[in-house]
Amino acid sequence: MNRKEKQKSHLDLIEVLSKNDCPVCLLLSQDEFDLLCEWVGESGPEDGATEKRERLLDSNGFCNYHFWVFSKICGMYGNAVMSIDQIGKILNIPGFNGKGNNVIALLKEHFQNVRCPVCADIKEMESAYLEELISLLNEEENKIKYAQGDGLCLPHLMLLSEKKQSGPLFQFLIERGCVQMEKIKADAVNLGSKRHPPLSWEQTKNEKRSGSRAIKKLIGRQGHNSSALWRQHDK
Q1: Residue closest to 154 by CA, chosen among 208, 205, 203, 221
Q2: Are the C-beta atoms of residues 122 and 230 closer than 8 Å to each other?
Q3: Which residues neighbour 91 within 8 Å (Cβ) at sequence distance 6 or greater?
Q4: Is the pTM of this model over 0.70?
Q5: Nearest by Cα to 131 from 164, 173, 180, 168
Q6: Which of 18, 100, 177, 206 measures 20 to 30 Å from 56, CA to CA?
Q7: What is the domain count for the chain?
Q8: What's the domain range around 103?
Q9: pLDDT tens per residue across span 133-173
Q10: CB neighbourhood size of 127 (10 A)
Q11: How far apart are CA 221 and CA 102, in angstroms?
Q12: At what angle do helices 51-58 and 76-91 cross, to 10 degrees?
């Protein structure tokens, strides 16, 4: 991350510290969309073999999740171009002639070697955001903002623990994490107690969002698969 990108991540993180969402997940969701839009922008038949398309070919395509997201934001012509590239690569695998069990072995090898470029870029951004968050929270003003929101999701809290496992800052994050979960739980309980009129008219915005906030706190953003939680699960 260059100096300009680091300054932007610094300002972006400050802006979302007090949100009722994981600040890192919020930024990564927007980054992910922006990255996929860049791929869409180079998927036209007139673009030819661009550096990005060559990178995608070398990576054996996107992961399942990013292929489907890409397809939803890309037009039918862009999807067709990407399909030509990826299917063409498989058909050109040496020994892939449509005969015998060797075809299945070659397919397995191909898909086992998928290195989704969006996942790779997101993982780098994720690490940079966590490093920047550690730096930001050394300032009392930013700690106050962080305490006002829902804080890091549990996967990102675990991932951050790999960078900083001790000291007052890490203890602050653990304590705030417990307080934030208690707050989400209380909002969910209140929502249940206000299920019927006239109490339902008194439901707050945070209470109405308590279910989605709890899911985000527990497992992070949708499609998020590079966190400590899932890496431990895959071992």
Answers
A1: 221
A2: no
A3: none
A4: yes
A5: 164
A6: 100
A7: 1
A8: 3-234
A9: 999 999 999 999 999 999 999 999 999 988 876 789 999 99
A10: 16
A11: 39
A12: 50
Both structure tokens of 199: 């109490």
* List of residues 6+ apart from 10 with CB closer than 8 A: 132, 135, 136
Distances (CA, A) of 123 to 5, 27, 81, 110, 161: 15, 12, 27, 22, 16
Per-residue pLDDT at 46: 62
Ranges assigned E (strand) in the chain: none
Which one-letter amino acid corresponds to residue 232? Q
Residue 17, both tokens = 């510290």
Confidence of residue 100 (pLDDT cuts 50, 70, 90): low
Mean predicted lDDT score pLDDT of the chain: 86
d(CA 84, CA 6): 37
The sign one gets for the Cα dihedral 99, 104, 110, 116 is: positive
